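User: Can you recover a sequence for this backbone? Please restate the input before giving your answer.

Assistant: Of course. Working from this structure:
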């Protein structure tokens, strides 16, 4: 097994030659910090609003080498959040958010077609499946809530027979399907987006870590890297979990890691278990497993049960954690016994930016506009985030900037070390509870009590 930080998608896609780092003084209309999906979609949407804008992207490493090039490739929206959001914000903003997110799911496919990006975009439903009695009905509040709101088609029940008809596993029980979703090859999308930005004249500088942003008296910004600086009317911060380093923003975020294992091509096994429709599947654990197939007949199987990150520390186990990979590989084989004797060829991982309510947050401070907190669901939502940040950076206020994700009431995690100690204890309890549930064994009162803590604190974690 080839266990690396950056994983198979990036190898398969073939990374482009890196661009030169920023050197000297530059001027732009908007400077984007971070060359993942969020930063690159922001640059794209800035130019969709005004073709003549001068846009610069500064990336510390290489565009798409972070989670944007390594994720599971599930592209989804927000219908399952709507009942809960309708209670907090009212029905209209909640439904509007879900519709905007759906239009982003579709727009990613349209972008791939229009820009000839072969990112394996496939519109497929996203299916949640129970693998234990304790997970049964995990989708009920969403499915029933959406029915009451008149949007019952968006998220529907699946019987155990329907689930087995999509993919056979001895562990699978009933489930539910969200109809508007897709899958992509994540690195192909990231590199395709980078190439499209270059074609449109965006200045993309890699190996260019931003060290600071100074807001000037005239309302603009100066963004500083080691080799140079960019003066602009506005800056956009799109640095995922490294937002933890940003003064004033770190308490609305914590970080943990997620990992993926990948099989050799097993088209015969996919035939045997009937999983030939490329559906995006996930179980209903609190630390969920997510799994999909590739164009060459592999299974990519991810698990969100990696470690918590202390503060913004660079811990190599965020990307490469042999312990987590071993658990994910074991579970994959339990889910699909037909894989006996077949090889797991690749493994990798990456950081997840966890927001207190599982939804991303968009905030502005003067001419600096930031987005973060996708909580493992950023592939589709980062396209919507790019649309929001482009509007904010241009000072335009419209239906996007009035969505409930923009300037929400702050919910804060405790400062370190309490965040790490508390977060690690909760994650360990959730992993333990998930495993006991799946074995049908009773959950001890201490584990059950700790697992309930996030809800009691008004946080909606994780999944
Ligand atoms: C293993 C794994 C599986 C996942 N699976 C899914 C999935 O199936 N579906 C889904 O929706 N989401 C998934 N996610 C989450 C998804 O990948 C992210 O939400 C999304 O890629 C976030 O994009 P981003 O642009 O915010 O972050 P990133 O891709 O991390 O981009 C941020 C960029 O900012 C750069 N940067 C940081 N600091 C600086 C600085 N100071 N100066 C300049 N540049 C800087 C980084 O190098 C990085 O390239 C997964 C994540 C992981 C790790």
């Amino acid at each position: 097994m080839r266990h690396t930080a950056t994983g198979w998608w990036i190898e398969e896609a073939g990374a482009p030659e890196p661009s030169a780092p920023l050197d000297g003084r530059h001027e732009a209309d908007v400077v984007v910090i971070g060359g993942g999906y969020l930063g690159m979609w922001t640059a794209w949407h800035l130019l969709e609003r005004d073709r003549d804008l001068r846009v610069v992207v500064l990336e510390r490493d290489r565009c798409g080498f972070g989670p944007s090039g390594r994720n599971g490739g599930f592209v989804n929206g927000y219908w399952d959040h709507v009942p809960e959001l309708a209670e907090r914000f009212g029905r209209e903003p909640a439904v509007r958010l879900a519709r905007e997110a759906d239009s982003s799911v579709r727009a990613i496919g349209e972008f791939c077609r229009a820009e000839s990006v072969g990112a394996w975009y496939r519109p497929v439903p996203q299916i949640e499946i129970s693998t234990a009695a304790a997970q049964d009905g995990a989708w009920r509040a969403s499915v029933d809530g959406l029915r009451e709101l008149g949007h019952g088609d968006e998220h529907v029940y699946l019987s155990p027979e329907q689930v087995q008809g999509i993919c056979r596993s001895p562990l699978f029980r009933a489930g539910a399907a969200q109809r508007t979703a897709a899958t992509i090859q994540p690195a192909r999308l990231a590199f395709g987006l980078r190439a499209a930005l270059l074609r449109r004249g965006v200045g993309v500088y890699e190996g260019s870590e931003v060290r600071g942003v100074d807001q000037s008296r005239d309302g603009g910004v100066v963004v500083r890297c080691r080799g140079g600086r960019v003066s602009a009317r506005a800056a956009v911060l799109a640095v995922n979990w490294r937002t933890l380093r940003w003064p004033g923003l770190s308490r609305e975020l914590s970080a943990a890691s997620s990992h993926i294992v990948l099989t050799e091509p097993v088209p015969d096994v996919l035939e045997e278990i009937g999983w030939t429709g490329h559906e995006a599947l996930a179980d209903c654990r609190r630390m969920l497993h997510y799994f999909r197939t590739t164009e060459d007949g592999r299974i990519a199987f991810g698990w969100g049960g990696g470690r918590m990150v202390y503060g913004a520390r660079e811990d190599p186990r965020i990307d490469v954690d042999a312990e987590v990979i071993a658990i994910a590989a074991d579970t994959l084989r339990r889910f699909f016994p037909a894989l006996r004797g077949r090889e797991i060829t690749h493994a990798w991982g990456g950081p997840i930016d966890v927001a207190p309510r599982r939804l991303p947050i968009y905030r502005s401070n003067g001419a600096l506009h930031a987005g973060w907190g996708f909580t493992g669901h950023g592939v589709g939502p980062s396209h919507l985030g790019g649309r929001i940040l482009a509007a904010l950076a241009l000072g335009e206020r419209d239906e996007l900037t009035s969505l409930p994700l923009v300037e929400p009431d702050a919910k804060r995690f405790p400062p370190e070390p309490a965040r790490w100690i508390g977060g690690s204890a909760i994650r360990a309890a959730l992993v333990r509870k998930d495993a006991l549930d799946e074995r049908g064994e009773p959950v001890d009162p201490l584990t059950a009590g700790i697992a309930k803590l996030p809800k009691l604190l008004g946080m909606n974690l994780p999944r």
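That completes the design. Residues 91-114 form the longest helix (24 residues).
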